[in-house]
Amino acid sequence: MAHSLRxxxxxxxxxRRALRNFWALRHYLWDYRGRVALAxxxxxxxxxxxxxxxxxxxxxxxxxxxxxxxxxxPLFLLAAYGALRLASxxxxxxxxxxxxxxxHRAMRRLTVRTLRHLHDLSLRFHLERRTGALSRDLERGxxxxxxxxxxxxxxxxxxxxxxxxxxxxxxxxxxxxFAAVILVAVVSFVGFTxxxxxxxxxxxxxxxxxxxEANNQAVESLINYxxxxxxxxxxHEAARTDATLRDWEDMAVRAQGSLSLxxxxxxxIVALGVTAVLVLAAQGVxxxxxxxxxxxxxxxxxxQLFLPLNFLGTVYRQVxxxxxxxxxxxxxxxxxxxxxxxxxxxxLEVPRGEVRFExxxxxxxxxxxxxxxxxxxxxxxxxxxxxxPSGAGKSTLVRLLxxxxxxxxxxxxxxxxxxxxxxxxxxxxxxxxxxQDAVLFNDTLYYNIAYAREGATREEVxxxxxxxxxxxxxxxxxxxxxxxxxERGLKLSGGEKQRVAIARAVLKGSPIxxxxxxxxxxxxxxxxxxxxxxxxxxxNRTTLAIAHRLSTVVDxxxxxxxxxxxxxxxxxxxxxLDHGGVYARLWRLQQEEGSGVR
Length: 598
Ligand SMILES: Nc1ncnc2c1ncn2[C@@H]1O[C@H](COP(=O)(O)OP(=O)(O)OP(=O)(O)O)[C@@H](O)[C@H]1O
Ligand SMILES: [Mg+2]
Known about the structure:
binds adenosine-5'-triphosphate, binds magnesium ion, Rossmann fold, about 10% strand, 20 helices, 4-stranded antiparallel beta sheet, alpha/beta, ABC transporter transmembrane region fold, 6-stranded mixed beta sheet
């Protein structure tokens, strides 16, 4: 959680970063340059039509204002007026349709790229992140890309062009005074907009942050539905979310207040500017310098000028937000994974399947050492068991073997190859695991088993399910293999989930097997059956088995007793019993509890 949260609490991005992120967008545009050019063409035509409308309007009014009006306004003028309006809206829509592909393809590419990157990031990142906040960053980041592309191409550029165009017409047709008034109006409009937008930015950011926070709290309380109910904490959850929303409410009200101030200020500047120009135009008409048509055209041009300017305030704000969102996503993309493939790393070769831990030291955090001087070998095709109290570091051994973390000292080698010097993909492919807490996808039972190996046939999946003694369950379920297992597999019992995990490991069929409390959720009878099947599956495979119940590992070639991060005893079951140490004591205790009953 710390990282993503800290990130959003950072002050809004520096301008240099923002500009750099903005500049990075060019690839998305360049890849589609043909389409972008067409869209820009449509845009120019639309703007041209737009600016011509007031000029044509002048012709119409002037035609009506002359003696010739008795004959009627030339029909073609009226028709042209209509056609220009139509062209303006037609080209605008065409532009949007052409550009839609560019925008959406860019969103798609960015989202997939980010997802891949998130998968590459290390377990440590994922243990610390907040899923809710992360998925929001992803979503907002992708839509901010679309916003930025859109604005860059269709707002900032065209508004500038239109401004210059209108200003040019006014200066050449109507002289310096008009231009001066308009210049003053435009400059004060833009200055006011930027100043006020910057001032209220912080409120908006804060309001957004509080909203996300409230959202996260609500979602979290729903994810933990059962826990909330066990402790009757519905009121507490509602109050927690409400407290955040109260702050959000205040902040949002303030943000609306400042928005209204912004809008009103803009309106005032426009009103003053238009009035001043109209006064000038009216004087011109009275002096006979300007026609009535000129007056109408000037008014229309002005309104047309301020319409996009008005929009500019919104654009400015949205671009700032979009850049901030984008920056969060870029920040994610810039995080380098902690565990990476060495440059040019070859795939792992497992001709024999020997696993060696050589004087391995490990700490998750520098202050707290978890494993110290762990040194053992699992000969090819043999089984080594690790037993020991909770928190001793047993599952940590497995995480190190899978290279979710790198060892702090010593090394882990498979058939003589340091696992840091081969590709992670090949390493993980060669090891099958039944994890301590199996978590499933919210899909069908079949999908969840077949997940272990892409391209597994129906027969193979069914055979694996049989080995894991899942066939009885499948027969009982009305929808059999097609049953949906619920989020994280919560619609299955603990033992059923564990059997799915076993079926997965069997289906994966790797030369090295890891069982982390593989049968801890099963009752003794089911356990005996599955153990027999697992023994068969593990025959001739190198096996690392972790267990609480010693009865499940008596057949291991070697048993390590791990306590406080070091191996305190090791040997075969017989040897350890004869030794009369920790293992022998544990064994007696568990025997007394009733032979094998949990
Ligand atoms: N990501 C982590 N960051 C910091 N400490 C961790 C992390 N994961 C585990 N630990 C700590 O490392 C120690 C060993 O954990 P591990 O999961 O290896 O224990 P274990 O022997 O498998 O216990 P159990 O039998 O209960 O499964 C524990 O004290 C745990 O608190
Ligand atoms: Mg464990």
